[in-house]
Write a structure and sequence with these properties.
- The chain has six helices and nine strands.
- Helix 1 crosses helix 3 and helix 4 packs parallel to helix 5.
- The chain starts with a helix and ends with a helix.
- The protein is globular, with a radius of gyration of 16 Å.
- It has one domain.
- The strands form two sheets. A seven-stranded mixed sheet has the order 1-9-6-2-5-3-4, with helices on both faces. Strands 7-8 form a two-stranded antiparallel sheet.
- The longest helix is centred in the N-terminal third of the chain and has 20 residues.
- It is an alpha/beta fold.
């Protein structure tokens, strides 16, 4: 439940973000993802969350449920993502992690994609945590890597150096399907493979 007072400033912030996103020049390697066969575990680094709602609404037909931190900031993020067309689930590796994992599992079995930042909510930045691998094993569904590069952006002083693409700048998006964990494949091996793919498509300027 989102307290009413969060909506007072979240609504104008969401409207402002929509205008901001509309100025960006997105370039993607695909026109649309064919997700008719089922949902995927969507992966992106935490510092690229700013454009995540636009990508989800533009390139995927199925709805997306996103994992949001249980921190104090998480409440307004839930409201914010709802206005941007994305359902949010509260949880992290340290708090309510098991409950969030089961909620995401139910959402995926109902046909929704699950969006996860594997280095969130507190880092270390660009370090893949195993939660997303566990979700893929539970659901038997593959991954979709959201590689995102900003041509020009501002960076905050947060742990992930959160990126804010400059208005009218270019954003390069690479959507890449990765198979579900193979039987007998260690979680650490899967995480290392996905971390490498995310870094390959997300680090450095566009």
């Amino acid at each position: 439940m989102v307290p009413w007072y969060h909506w007072v400033w979240v609504l104008p912030a969401a409207l402002f973000l929509r205008v901001w996103l509309s100025t960006l020049r997105f370039r993607c390697n695909v026109e649309k993802i064919d997700d008719s066969e089922g949902p995927s575990v969507l992966l992106l680094w935490h510092d690229k969350l700013f454009v995540s709602s636009w990508i989800a609404n533009r390139y995927f037909k199925r709805p997306v449920t996103a994992l949001i931190s249980t921190s104090k900031d998480g409440a307004w993020l839930v409201a914010f993502f709802k206005l941007m067309g994305i359902t949010a689930v509260r949880g992290s590796s340290s708090r309510r992690g098991a409950a969030a994992l089961m909620t995401l599992t139910r959402s995926m079995r109902a046909g929704q994609h699950a969006g996860i930042t594997p280095d969130g909510p507190k880092g270390p930045a660009l370090e893949f945590k195993p939660g997303a691998v566990s979700l893929a094993r539970l659901t038997g569904r593959p991954f979709m890597v959201l590689g995102i590069r900003y041509h020009a952006c501002w960076r905050t002083r947060s742990w992930d150096r959160f990126g804010l693409p400059m208005p009218f700048s270019k954003v390069e998006v690479t959507l890449h399907a990765e198979p579900k964990p193979a039987e007998g494949e260690a979680d650490e091996v899967v995480a290392a493979r996905l971390q490498a793919r995310l870094n390959e498509t997300s680090t450095g300027p566009a």
